[in-house]
Each structure stands twice: as C-alpha cells, then as structure tokens.
Amino acid sequence: MNIQPLALSFLAATAIGGLAWVFVYPLLSGEKKAEARRASVARPEPSGRPIDKNQRSRREQVEGSLKDLEARRLKEKKIPLSSRLTQAGLSWTPQKFMIISGVLAAVAFAIAMLFKGGLIGAVGLAFAAGFGLPRWMLSYLKKRREAKFLKALPDAVDVIVRGIKAGLPLFESIKVVAADAPEPLKSEFLAIIETQAIGMPLGEACARLFERMPVPEANFFGIVIAIQQKSGGNLSEALGNLSKVLRDRKKMAEKIQAMSMEAKASAGIIGSLPPIVMLLVYLSTPQYISLLWTHPTGQLMLVGCVIWMSIGIFVMKRMINFDF
C-alpha cells in the first residue's frame, strides 16, 4: 500500500493546524486585547499638579527598585535546570537528573520493543518517558511546593508584623519565622538568613526569594522589603497591607478554582475518552486494533492522533487556566 498520499495529507494538516494556532488562536483567545489593555493601563498619564521634591525623590527610589527587580527577572527568564531542581525541592544535580531521564527512556524503549510495539512507537514512548515524564514531575513537584509556600506565607508575614510592632528588628522577626514555620517556608527564610549573614543586604536577600520561589507573592514580599530598606517608611504598615493582599489573592484563587471545576471536569472527560475507548477495544478485539502499532499506515495514523490529541489537550488547558 502506498502511504505517500497519507504522509502528504498528514504534513499538510499539521502545517494548516500550526498556521491556525499561530495566527487565529491569539484572535480567538483575546490575547491581543489583553496586551492592548495592559499597555493602556501601564501608560503614564500627565498630571498638572506640582510634585514636591521629597515625594519625587521617594518615587524615583521606588521606581528604580522596581526597574532593577524587573530587569533581573527578565534577564533570568530562562531558568537553568539546576534552578528548576531547587524550585522543585530536590537536591539532585543536573547530571543525576539527566542520568535518570536516560535510564527511563532506555527502559521504556526496551519495554516497547519487547511487546513488539514497532520502532516508531518505541522511540515515541522512550521520548515521552525520558524527556516528558521527568519534566512533568519537576513541574508537579514545583507547583506542590509553591502551594505549600503560599499557604503559609500570609501567617509568616503576620508574625513579622507583630514582631516589628513589639520592637524586634526585621532580621530577628525573620529568624522567628525561620524557626517555627513549616516547610518549604522554613528553608526559604533560612536561606534569606544565610545569605544576609555572608554580607548581602537584607533587602537584596529578600528579593532573591523570587529566584527560588517564582510566585508573585514572593516577589511582592521582596519588593516591599527592598523598597523599605532603600527609602524607609512604616514597615509594619506596609507588611500588614501585603498580608491583606496575599490573603485576598488566596481567596480569589480558591474562588477561581471552584468556578472552573466544571470546565476542568469536562476537559478531563473529553481528553480521557479516546484512550479509554482504545483500551476497551483492545480488551475485546485485540487483533482489530493492533494494526495501529503493527502496520506502517497504522503507526502513521497513531502518531497523527497523538499529535492532534496533544494539541487539543493543550488548547483546553489554556482555556481553563486562569491567570490573575
């Protein structure tokens, strides 16, 4: 059987899908409107009122601190593997992670070849087990660690506020949090203490918290401390306001999660139907469906189905994933 027309049709469908994803999806998803709205909000408006020199100096210090933090964040946007392992709470080296990934790929390839899955299927399974699975586990561990951090951060900020109001210095209040807070908040605040102990200013040490825990709440905390260290002000009031913001963001996240559970359940059912139907057909009539991984045409169709299913799952995930 000549599979050249099928291959050409598959490549043409892939090209059309890619073009639609690049040019049509941003229009349908509202990304361009969101970018325009963010640009309009960020645009400064002229003011006719005179600005006092002290206010101008304080504003310039605040703007300078924000620009420095944003520049550092953009510069380190591409996160190396060692930092990703640290963010996931693992003490592995990148070499150990790569070795484990290679072992998983080899095991998956051997299992696929043992069960006569074909060379294409074995390569695809090895790629998924050696490249996709370890990185998915890193992402899962990172999100779980961030959730635990965000759950304990508002209480830690309240402890710091009460310590400052009681007369303790900021550094001593951070030590109290590092001694009594649960993980991973305890280890992150211990890292702040250790970084400050070797001579780094406390504001910069707190700002580096965002590098190890890349969530907006950690960035807020670092910005508040860095600005207060440079320009002064009522730190207890600023941290009290930050604690209120953190709790409001937590409530908003829980509300969004509750409102989006129906869409997530629907997406999970739709995404799991094809594999479940394939498994049931294999259990009932294995010789009927085994052509998908034993015949070259079936293997090509199976690869195309996996690609389109992956695109569909990615689109559904983007539709039900809300950023705020």
Automatic annotation (TrEMBL):
Q: Which UniProt keywords apply?
A: Cell membrane, Membrane, Transmembrane, Transmembrane helix
Per the UniProt record, which residue ranges are transmembrane?
A: 6-28, 97-115, 121-141, 265-285, 297-316
Question: Where's it found, cell-wise?
Answer: Cell membrane
**Gene3D superfamilies registered for this protein in UniProt:** Type II secretion system (T2SS), domain F (1.20.81.30)
**Keyword DNA-binding: yes or no?**
no
Pfam families membership: T2SSF (PF00482)
Where is composition skewed (Basic and acidic residues) in this entry? 50-59
Note the topology in the membrane.
Multi-pass membrane protein
This protein's superkingdom? Bacteria
In terms of InterPro entries, this protein maps to: T2SS_GspF_dom, T2SS_GspF_sf
Question: Quick one: where's region Disordered?
Answer: 38-59
Would you tell me the protein name for this molecule? Tight adherence protein B
Organism classification: Bacteria, Pseudomonadati, Pseudomonadota, Alphaproteobacteria, Hyphomicrobiales
